[in-house]
Amino acid sequence: MNGLTIEKIQHAATVLKDVSRKTDLIKASKLKCQSVVYLKTENLQETGSFKVRGSAYKISQLSEAQKQAGIIACSAGNHAQGVALAASKAGLKCVICMPDGAPLSKVEATKALGAQVILVKGAYDDAHAYAIKLQQENNMTFVHPFDDLDVMAGQGTIALEILEQLEWIDAVIVPIGGGGLIGGVSYAIKQLNPAIKVYGVQAENAASMVGSVASGRPITVKSVATFADGIAVKTPGASTLPLVREYVDEIVTVTEDEIATAILTLMEKQKLVAEGAGATAVAALLFNKLPLKGKTAVAIVSGGNIDVNILSRVITRGLITSGRQHTLEIALEDKPGQLVGVSSAIEKCGANVVRVDYTDSDPNTSVTSCVLKIGIETRGFDQIVAVKAALESEGFNILSA
Predict the structure, then answer these.
(1) According to the model, what pLDDT value does residue 321 have?
(2) Which residues contact 280 (CB under 8 A, 6 or more apart)?
(3) Which of 148, 149, 157, 351 is a Cys-bridge partner for 13, taking CB atoms 3.0 to 4.6 Å apart?
(4) Which member of 51, 190, 197, 234 is catalytic?
(5) Cα gap 145→173, rounded to integer Å
(6) Strand-by-strand arrangement of the 25-27 sheet
(7) Which of 324, 323, 230, 346 is nearest to 279 (CA)?
(8) Continuous H helices in 97-237
(9) Would you state the pLDDT for residue 1?
């Protein structure tokens, strides 16, 4: 079992029975997509992420000498918890290097699982470099989050479960960071049913795999700027890239606003909490990034460990992107009754005023005018258009919308 084989992935499935959950595959009939969508709910793993599969299988395959030397890993959070849980179950010492920008919730969760956490200034790649330095100095065993065949075999067990749970699918959609998840899943899918399409999704601001596939070698992007921290990887794996190039049919990207909309939609429609990385596959479906009209697709919701401190901001972004919240700037004559007229026009359209801001010092308006900024809740973009039309019909001058 030196290379990645279907037998290795099946062996991993046997080993992981007492460590990871066989997560539910649920039909997402409430999502407004062009395809029939099922969600593979890896966000409901004990650690809130699929990562426990790969790390636990990797640790299970180490020699006793390697285990006794102790485990070290680097992670933005999810791999950290997976390694910490697997090491704890095996009774092994565990050190995790995490970027200092990792969500506090993930840092604390990793500590709670018994690991020693070292915060490293910078992104994932900086934490990785420091972990390698410590590994060499202390002769510990390094558990890579994605660039490892045992880790990919563990992640590939998700594909086995999907094929057991659903009689027929046309496609599987997988988030991509370093490529460990999609490497294992795409290999298993194509070995067992080559007719099934495998699509990858990256955050637009962290698309290192897209460039690497195009160039045929791992490339390093200068920066990653996404709240989907679980896939914020500057350089994909040397072992994952060949698998992605051979077995993945297409990779698309999604914006921050599209990811936020997917998180909000999963919460509202499916009652599921997803983190940024975990929602990217759903975002690709919601915004029709893939040729799946009328097809049956499985989206892997890879994790649910979203930082509650940014959740409200993510929800707001999702509301704006989906046309559920909107801000209007209106030039008014500075006289009584103007606000009543604006609110009356909005009320007649069935929208709701949630925020009002007023200024009489805008240099772009006359001395006798003022500017009203008004936030409204709406049902969607059609209602926003109706509100604007109602205001203009009442003679109000909309400056920006």
Answers:
(1) 87
(2) 175, 201, 202, 203, 228, 231, 254, 259, 262
(3) 157
(4) 51
(5) 20
(6) 25-27, 36-41, 296-301, 171-175, 197-203, 250-254
(7) 230
(8) 104-112, 124-138, 149-165, 180-192, 208-215
(9) 39
Length of the chain in residues, anyone? 401
Q: Kindly calculate the radius of gyration of the chain based on its CA atoms and give it in whole angstroms.
A: 24
Tokens of 345: 């026009």
Tokens 């297409």, located at residue: 250
Q: How far apart are CA 11 and CA 254, in angstroms?
A: 34
Identify the CA nearest to 221 among candidates 236, 234, 203.
234
Burial classification of residue 72, based on how many CB atoms lie within 10 Å of its CB (0-12 exposed, 13-18 middle, 19 or more buried): buried
Beta-ladder partners of 172: 198, 298
Q: How far apart are CA 52 and CA 86, in angstroms?
A: 7
DSSP structure string for 365-377? S-TTEEEEEEEEE
The pLDDT tens digits for 34-83 are: 999 999 999 999 999 999 999 999 999 999 999 999 999 998 778 999 99
Across 111-120, 276-285, 367-376, least confident range: 367-376
DSSP string, 335-350: STTHHHHHHHHHHHTT
Strand 352-359 and strand 369-377: the pairing is antiparallel
Helix (H) or strand (E) holding 284: helix 280-286
**Which pair of structure tokens corresponds to residue 376?**
């409204």
E strands, 204-351, are 250-254, 296-301, 325-333
- Helix, strand, coil % in the chain, rounded to nearest 5: 45, 20, 35
* Confidence (pTM): 0.86
**Which DSSP helix (H) or strand (E) runs through 40?**
strand 36-41
What SS3 class is residue 329?
A: strand
The catalytic position among 49, 75, 208, 302 is 302
SS3 354: strand
